[in-house]
Amino acid sequence: MTRLSLIPVEILYSIFSLLNKSDVSRLSRTCKQIHQQATPRLWRSYHNYNQQPYNAFLRAIVTNPGRAKHVEELHTSNVSEDDPREISENDIQSFQSAVSNLSLPDEFKDRLNEGIKEGYSDPMLALLLCKLPNLKNLFLYRPDICDLICELFGHANSGKFSGLDNLRRFSIETTDISCAVGTVRDYGGVLNMAHEVQIVQLNDETMSPSQFQEGSSAVEHLHILEGGMGTDAMRVFTQSCKTLRTFNYTFGNVNYYDDYFKPQEAVKELERHKDTLEELTMLYDDDRLKQSWYDLTAREWYMGTELQQFTKLKKLRSGMHSLLGLLHAQSAAMETYPANPQADRERPELTDVLPASIEHLTILYADVRIIPHLQKVGVVCKNQFPNLRKVIIGFCSESTEKDIQFEIPGLELSVLYQTPEEREAYVYGREPYSWVGSRIFRD
Q: What separation in angstroms does the CA of 207 have from each of 144, 182, 185, 267, 292?
């Protein structure tokens, strides 16, 4: 064991990273030195994906607070008020004793105790959150009724509770976009506290302003995936953030009659962060999004030249239509695309859209009409876009012949040929329980 003590900690951690949790657990029982190094890794992250009761994990944390300090990440799913679990008398007494030591309002603690006695998961998880002082990442997958959890976030946000001060990343994914409105609104407290927030399936035209006061939110990186927000909701989010560095938005499968915000409106609302925003995704489903009751050639349907004001923007992802007002020829929306030669002449060049700070550009839902725009970018790149290094183009396979030969000198160019199914998978395909899971965010 003396020789083992000479092994650098970094090497031990590398060894642990190659093993699954059960193997690390067995290895930790071989000697005291290994146990001391392996324990933080064993307890760093807890995953509860199968509606398992929280009894065992909560019992381990309550009975041995030393373990709690190692927990930095918590992934949970299907938290429900309507699914009580059997709980032993010993656990009830232990958990209720832990509740009594919390610095929270008595009325809240009474409700925690009552819920614990019945075996509900909402109070169990709320108590667990109170006992994890170093929790940094929290992922709620398909939560149902989480009144106590949301109220706990409210107490933390108002300064009445300090147990979640280290929380940095929060993700919530709803079961069904049709019921996402109330669910996300109730989490206003944690959305004000975390520095990085991911919301999957948000459908809210008018996000309640009472939950998000202007300039109050610590969120710097905001990912809204498979969502559908109205302009008012967009405004609430952008105004509430003090400093926004990332805004990633993908449009989901929502009711087409909703008054969702358009690319130009998004850019206008994001202008308050034009000196800090470094990454922007504005990705709509161009195959079927646009409808006949909208004037698709209207200026508001693409971003326009205002992006040039964003002096720190390095990474931009969007569709050909959202950038330039051009739909690929085989898009279902082309059937209602009104001919308007005047509007066609008013469309900007790509060189007039991109900010000088751009480094990485992704354009999807494209056809051959994007090539002249890219070639012009290449001509002026050295002087106008000196930091641009990588370009990804996603051609629609039904609108574009394969093996198009073109290059942009000095730039790394990646070309994709995507069927409708591949486009949908590329934009929306994601691993459950993951942070920003779509492939588009790993380009």
A: 19, 9, 7, 18, 27
CA angle, 253 then 256 then 259, to 5°: 115
What pLDDT, in 10s, does the model give residues 241-275? 999 999 999 887 555 545 678 888 899 999 999 99
Secondary structure class of 91 (helix, strand, coil): helix
From 149, 134, 125, 167, select the one nearest 43 (Cα to Cα).
Answer: 134
State if pTM tops 0.70.
yes
Instruction: Say whether both 102 and 120 belong to one domain.
Output: yes
What does the alpha-carbon distance between residue 155 and residue 103 come to, in Å, rounded to a whole number?
Answer: 10
Domains contained in the chain, number: 2
User: What letters, b where the CB count within 10 A reaches 16 and e where it falls short, cover 230-264?
Assistant: bbebbbbbbbbbeebbbbbbbbbebeeeeebbbbb
257 or 359: whose pLDDT is higher? 359
Token pair 């958990």: residue: 95
Integer Cα distance of 307 and 429 in angstroms: 28
Contact 282, 330 (CB under 8 A): no
* Amino acid, res. 179: C
Q: How far apart are CA 326 and CA 310, in angstroms?
A: 23
pLDDT of residue 287: 72
Nearest-angstrom CA–CA distance, 230 and 203: 8
Residue of 377 and 216 predicted with greater confidence: 377
Kindly list the distances between the CA atom of residue 225 and the CA atoms of 2, 139, 168, 202, 230, in Å, as whole numbers in the listed order.
52, 15, 19, 8, 14
Token reading at 305: 């030249």
Is the CA virtual torsion 135, 136, 139, 145 positive or negative? Answer: positive
Amino acid at 21: K
Q: How far apart are CA 406 and CA 401, in angstroms?
A: 13
From 220, 104, 84, select the one nearest 156 (Cα to Cα): 104
Asked if residue 85 lies in contact with residue 119, where contact means CB atoms within 8 angstroms, the answer is yes
Name the residue range of residue 105's domain.
44-167
CA separation for the pair 54, 77 (Å, rounded): 11
**Helical H runs in 282-326?**
320-324
The pLDDT > 90 percentage for the chain reads 38
Q: CA nearest 176: which of 224, 146, 142, 138?
A: 142
Give the tokens for residue 328.
């690929």
403 is written with which tokens? 């093996």
- The closest alpha carbon to 278, from 304, 250, 244, 312, belongs to 312
Query: What are residue 279's DSSP bridge partners?
Result: 246, 315
The CATH number that applies at residue 17 is 1.20.1280
Of the three residues 167, 194, 214, the one that is the final residue of a domain is 167
